[in-house]
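Discussion board: Methods & Data

I've been asked by a reviewer to show the raw model output for two of the constructs in my manuscript, not just the figures. I'm not sure how much to include, so I'm pasting the format here to get opinions. Each protein appears as its amino acid sequence followed by a line of discrete structure tokens. Is this the kind of thing reviewers expect to see in a supplement, or should I convert it first? Here is construct A:
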Amino acid sequence: MSPLITLTVVASLLLADPADAERVLGAYVFQRHGDRTAKSWPPTKLTSLGYSQEYMTGSFFHDRYISANSSHKIDGISTDIVNLAQITASAPQDDVIDNSGVGFLQGSIATETLRNGSTVEVPLNGYQLIPMSDVKSGSGSEDNTWLQSTSSCGKAIVSSNNYFNSNSYVSLLSGTRRLYQSLEPLVNETFSASELSYKNAYTIWDLLFVALIHNSTASFPPSTILNDTVMQELLVLANEHEFNLAYNSSDTIRAIAGMNLAGEVLTALNETITSGGKSKLNVQFGAYASFLSYFGLAELPATTVNFTGIPNYASSMAWELVTDDEGTEIPATSDIRVRFVFHNGTSIEGSTQLQAYPLFGQSMVELPWAQFVDETKRIAIQSQEDWCQTCGNSTGICASSSGAGDNSSSTSSAGSRSGREMSLGVAGVIGAMITLGVLFGLFILSMIVFGLRFVPKSAVAGIHRGSDASTVPVMKTIAA
């Protein structure tokens, strides 16, 4: 073989797509909503731009995981008409996030080839109806300005509030006061002078960011007040503010949103394996809080500081189940790996649409399934009971299990039981009454079957012993 041919072969091997030698068994996508109106002016709404962003991102994932000619196509997934047994979509009860899901799923176009060879496209440019189920976390999040407002997790709320007493917060609150006060001419219709501080770092930046995109009639004062440098500084402060509310390495309960997501991802990917590949693709729509808290829990900031920032609208992260096994079935778990990929913003163009990153402080971007399971279980919430215990909640949905194992006060426990349990004596009386009721029912049934009826005792005995005795019933057999 000539040196030129040898070099050509080596070059082709180096440039070959690694995905060509693998099978994608399934995937879980977590998708941020698209562009929306400002949080400071609820109800927050998805904009036309946001809907378009989600549609384009949905089209991208359709091309990646479903298109027949994709090197990342999920093994065995239906490529033309969606098979609802293979795909699951979910979103919290939130108008912005739910409508983002509709836009994303519309990117999954469908055509059908008839027997005569003609092709029919589903109406609305091939839009397929894919139902979305509800997830508990994140409902109403886009109408709330505080990151932890919808978690309902008692300990997480306390943990996030602790940030407002930290040295770093107090330092930034003082050091940035002049910057935020200078913005008063721009935001005085929304924020009072007392509200212009680092405490509202995210909502102030969000209001200005949305205005710069949509408000063509805004008459901002001279650029010395608001320019690219100021907006970048406000974004850095908003990132610092929100990441610290979403995650703290010494108090991880703060990352409850990421814990919930980790549990959902693990459950779904495990279902792909245990079902023999019947469940193939899960897509969940959500807000930036889940991104930030998962980033912290999965130790992604160690790879790049960008993982401490708020992801852009329509950002995506996905967990892919891959294998080098050449068969057609789900292989042994020892032959399965998990690859985490992320893209900051709409995945529509460029060579870095989705980039793989190592999870949990590892050096490799693909973790063996068993290792992924162990690492994820360490950070995940996997059941309602687990959530209640972790959050320390004892009311609402947690009320039924809150008393279990609580021995802090024997007197209280005994008092609680006395209100719910009955004494043996009362139980015996009730039992006897139930028995008599059953016997009386059988007695009535026998009368119906054998044609019996009630008659006064005096009619049988031929005597009258008074008003009380006359009403005592006795049984008399009446010939049919």
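Construct B, same format:
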Amino acid sequence: MAKTKYYFNSQTLKYEKVKLSLKVKILKAIGFISTAMVFSFVIIAMAYAFLDSPKEKQLKREIDQLSLQYDILQGRMKKIDQVVQTLEDRDDNIYRVIFEAEPISKDIRNAGFGGINRYKNLENYDYGNLMIETTKKMDILSKQLYVQSKSYDELSKLVKSKEKMMASIPAIQPIDSRKLKSAISGFGYRIHPIYKIKKMHAGIDLSAPIGTPIYATGDGVVVSQGTERGYGNQIIINHGYGYSTKYAHMSRFKARRGQKVNRGDIIGYVGNTGASTGPHLHYEVYKNGKVVNPMNFFFNDLSPVEYQEMLELASTENQSFD
């Protein structure tokens, strides 16, 4: 209950009640309401600035989850891109070389999407740049996979028309992978075991026990069989189509010069003859007279995982065995 206010009337020398006019009462009411509204606005503004509503908290959680999923998606797309790059590299430098087909040009593989802006409808979103970037990457990957798929269709037709050629290409390991030891010295510059300097290693050394069977890696004819300084007991097979293979440091022969062999036939056995520091097979592959990396041809009897493991072993810059 409001307190009654009095004032001292000097003329009547009495205390009299204060009577407010309607105008004053209205002005006081307006002032009170205005003050309350100002304070309310300030409190609400501070609450919006420093406190999150339940809906805002939920939206922030969803944004954090979307950001996490976006990062995961980017990581997966990066891995897929690496796989596609590997497929393209093997297609151009191995499969198309084998079948004597022209490699697919970079212009075709990396062709963009010309014409109108394909992503214009995404520009007005708050996270438009992220959406455009992701969509564009997916489009590029789709295009690359399409081109690669068409390339494999073309190679499939070449395989059917060149069955004899396929049987002649050196496409398996010369030693059973179950007999191989972990030690492998690959193609490229390696430390020579005797001279202790880096020299070009023209093949791949596969460590295995003496007497381990050595297999012809493709159909062909034995054009050389004998002993050569450095290589010891060796066999050279001419597979035709510009391919030949060399097998060195054998303990003994099974195939003879002039003999026709098929892929998988035993031609000799692992030894330690010639300039060798331990039992192993030194294996070389030639294409049109030029030495090439044998690892590029182990695609007939190795799974992708096995091939990757062997590639990592062969890529180590260690000391060769010969």
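Answer (T.O., handling editor elsewhere):
This is acceptable in a supplement if you add a one-line summary per construct. For B, something like: The radius of gyration is 41 Å.
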